[in-house]
Design a protein that fits this description.
With 447 residues, the chain is an all-alpha fold. The protein has 20 helices and no strands. Helix 9 (171-199) packs antiparallel against helix 14 (310-322) and helix 15 (328-347) runs antiparallel to helix 16. The model is unreliable at 1-42 and 231-254 (pLDDT under 50).
């Protein structure tokens, strides 16, 4: 259906209005209201500009709490007297928090609306990052980290919802915009944290706490969006579309039974496998290179290249995906890049290291692809919030064992062939499941 349209924007605009004409209910965010001050789902042009700015700033805040900690983990351990076991647990906490707290996002969005929940999420990120820099022991540090990760989790889930609600005619381009910002925040925090810490006096507390300033910046546009949305809700009573940001609570999404949808399960498993591959790459790729004789500085630079590939590709890939009726070919291309990178690490890890780093960087861009697919596999904001929560919660739970198994296999075998064999197997499954998830169908149809 979508592949026959002239452009991605016209395609998604047409698709998002389908349920309104079919009588799916007044809660569809794309249905023109019978009466009200604004035809746009998110209100005025000013509101949409504020949402766009909020998306970018929120996305920049979704990873520094994680990627900024790694370069200073040794100093944090020494400063807090943290054991190696707890430090290992700390690397698994993000996925667990994303799964647990992300599952709360639909209920919160139904009660308060996505703008209010994202605002609260940014406040939690800011508070968590600031508080953990004052932690004197391991327990308060973990608690503050969990607070920040909880804010990240609900915001993670609601990013596709915000795009679908305020930009139903720009799903591909807006997903690309915030995916690029997310990749920039990830790579930037990893690269900048140590130099920034040294420039600010050398204390890991200052280096980690400084990222809270970025969270403060994200509060302003979402506060303005929430303020702009309130007048639009009041005159409409229970009319539906004037409910503005709170429309995910509408009845159109109530009939969606996510757990009975094969598409939802395919997206959840695909999300989990791509997340597992990404965490394995972030956690173990430098060690693979170092064990092959590459210097520590060069291995770090190669990881930066791998993560940096996501910055341009995260902007371009969703726009391409939105033009296709079936995203399976993109899934296959990214998966084949990953398989080629693993084959290179198996046969010539040092001599072709830069090439393998580039290939794995391309493969890691399955993340913006799956976010785009989540926005395209439902017709309404209500459906997207349920699908996003289900796919991300399920996916992050599935991603937890991967990096741990790679470490265990490496320790057991003393080399990287067994871990690479596991990584290859997971990538093959990822391609197969992603082909299913990429089919042109919606969860509202029970498919």
């Amino acid at each position: 259906m979508m592949g026959r349209m002239a452009t991605a924007d016209d395609d998604l605009k047409t698709r998002s209005r389908t349920p309104a004409s079919a009588g799916s209910g007044p809660s569809s965010p794309s249905r023109p209201p019978a009466a009200g001050p604004s035809r746009a789902p998110g209100g005025s042009r000013r509101t949409r500009l504020l949402v766009a700015a909020g998306l970018v700033l929120a996305a920049l805040n979704l990873r520094p709490a994680v990627s900024g900690l790694g370069p200073l983990l040794e100093e944090v351990r020494a400063g807090l007297g943290m054991s190696g076991t707890v430090a290992g647990l700390l690397t698994a906490v993000p996925s667990l928090c994303f799964a647990v707290f992300g599952g709360l996002a639909p209920r919160l969005a139904r009660r308060w609306g996505p703008a209010a929940v994202v605002l609260a999420g940014m406040a939690a990120v800011t508070a968590g990052l600031a508080l953990r820099s004052f932690a004197g022991h391991t327990a308060p540090f973990l608690a503050a980290s969990a607070l920040a990760l909880a804010g990240i989790a609900v915001s993670n889930v609601l990013m596709p919802v915000v795009v679908k609600h305020w930009f139903p005619d720009r799903v591909g381009s807006m997903t690309g915009l915030y995916s690029m910002a997310l990749a920039l925040g990830t790579a930037g925090a990893a690269a900048v944290t140590v130099p920034m810490t040294e420039a600010l006096g050398g204390s890991w507390r200052v280096g980690l706490g400084a990222w809270a300033v970025l969270g403060v910046l994200a509060l302003a546009p979402w506060t303005a969006v929430l303020r702009d949305g309130r007048p639009a809700r009041e005159p409409g009573g229970g009319a539906a579309e004037p409910a503005g940001p709170a429309s995910p609570a509408g009845g159109g999404g109530a009939a969606v039974r996510i757990t009975r949808s094969p598409t939802a399960w395919a997206l959840g498993v695909f999300f989990g496998l791509q997340a597992s591959a990404a965490y394995i790459t972030m956690g173990w790729l430098p060690q693979i290179f170092r064990d092959a004789g590459v210097s520590a500085s060069a291995a770090g630079a190669m990881l930066a290249v791998t993560m940096g590939m996501g910055i341009p590709l995260s902007f371009v890939l969703p726009r391409i995906a939105a033009r296709l009726s079936h995203q399976g070919p993109l899934v296959a291309i990214l998966g084949l890049c990953g398989l080629s990178g693993y084959a290179g690490l198996w046969s010539a890890p040092a001599s072709g290291a830069w090439a393998w780093a580039l290939l794995l960087g391309v493969s890691n861009c399955a993340f913006p692809l799956v976010l785009t697919m989540i926005g395209m596999r439902s017709r309404t904001s209500a459906g997207v919030v349920k699908l996003s929560a289900f796919a991300q919660s399920t996916g992050y739970l599935l991603s937890i064992p991967g990096p741990l198994l790679v470490g265990a296999l490496r320790q057991h075998s003393g080399g990287w062939h067994l871990p690479l064999l596991l990584m290859t197997t997971l990538m093959v499954v990822q391609i197969g499941v992603g082909m299913l998830a990429g089919r042109d169908r919606c969860v509202e149809d029970g498919r």
